[in-house]
Amino acid sequence: MPVDRQADAQLSPTIRFPARAAKAGGADAVSLINTVNSVMGVDPDTLRMSPEVGGKGTHGGYCGPAVRPIALHMVAEIARDHETAGLPVSGIGGIGSWRDALEFIALGAGSVQVCTAAMVFGFKIVQEMISGLAAYLDAKGLASVEALRGRALPSVTEWRYLDLNRVSKAVINQDLCIQCGRCHIACEDTAHQAITAQ
């Protein structure tokens, strides 16, 4: 039976095909991402899930800043997919500042939603996001949020199109270096011995 309200389908983190199905099913928009099902851990002494309630545990919803990179990827995927491009997207996942909101909008979201940050810092954070984003738009000479929407999409591509022969070099500010050696360990183990310790 037809309804006279907008249908907004919230999608799971596996996105391209569910977004297509939501659109085909009549969704007017999509909001993403929801929390990611997760298990916090296992207590090594009791060998039970942690946290637990009465000796039992279950998955919870992983959210906040840690899921933002996942959410940004999903927003960009929907905006870039030929079958879902143009479908209105509301970005969700780890938005805690005006800059976070900007990233979602620049990757194609027409709106953003805030939960974890509002729970931690209160609803005043939303006004701080609005004023920060407005100041950014003014500084960049952009007339509206809509003028920002999707502006980063031309720089998003697939792995196969990256120039993997391009040489990039890390710059280390020696004045800030504390000689911990972590950069050497990371590069030696993962970047084909890009740094040689002296």
Automatic annotation (TrEMBL):
GO terms for molecular function: oxidoreductase activity, acting on the CH-CH group of donors. Keywords: Oxidoreductase. One of its GO terms (cellular component) is cytoplasm. It holds the Pfam family DHO_dh. InterPro entries: 4Fe4S_Fe-S-bd, 4Fe4S_Fe_S_CS, Aldolase_TIM, Dihydroorotate_DH_cat. Residues 168-197 form the 4Fe-4S ferredoxin-type domain. PANTHER family: DIHYDROPYRIMIDINE DEHYDROGENASE [NADP(+)]. Belongs to the dihydropyrimidine dehydrogenase family. This is Dihydrothymine dehydrogenase. It comes from mine drainage metagenome. The lineage of its organism: unclassified sequences, metagenomes, ecological metagenomes.
